[in-house]
Specification:
The protein is mostly beta strands and 127 residues long. The chain is built from no helices and eleven strands. The strands form two sheets. Strands 2, 4, 5, 6, 9, 10 and 11 form a seven-stranded mixed β-sheet that branches. Strands 1-3-8-7 form a four-stranded antiparallel β-sheet, with no helix packed on it. 33% of the residues are buried.
Length: 127
């Protein structure tokens, strides 16, 4: 039973940077894809970025392109989200997720495609 644990959240000023980390437990971990989602109270969980575990292909929502970078370290069973030029609208709880099986490319942004989720880490960008 794989578990994901996020870390690195916090409070930053407008224009600042944060690096989120997600570590998977267990000896064996070979998902099809890992992703970051974010959610604010009263709203749905939104896709942020994803990375294919084997090939390393990355995907981003338009609003974070050029500002966020997703990466993974397969040996360390970890995925990261480097966030720069943060804006108040980036404020949310950020969740790490893993898709154990294959996922169609067009479905990588759908929460339902992921079967393992972390507990979340809060990111607050002060205005």
């Amino acid at each position: 039973q794989v578990q994901l644990v996020e870390s690195g959240g916090g409070l930053v000023e407008d224009g600042g940077s944060l690096r989120l980390s997600c570590k998977a437990s267990g000896r064996t971990f070979d998902p099809y894809a890992m992703a970051w989602f974010r959610q604010v109270p009263g709203k749905e969980r939104d896709f942020v970025a994803s990375v294919l575990w084997r090939g390393g292909d990355t995907y981003y929502r338009d609003s974070v392109k050029g500002r966020f970078t997703i990466s993974r370290d397969n040996a360390k069973k970890s995925v990261f989200l480097q966030m720069t030029s943060l804006k108040p609208e980036d404020t949310a709880d950020y969740y790490c997720a893993a898709a154990s099986g294959g996922v169609f490319t067009e479905s990588l942004g759908a929460p339902a495609s992921y079967d393992v989720w972390g507990q979340g880490t809060q990111v607050t960008v002060d205005s």
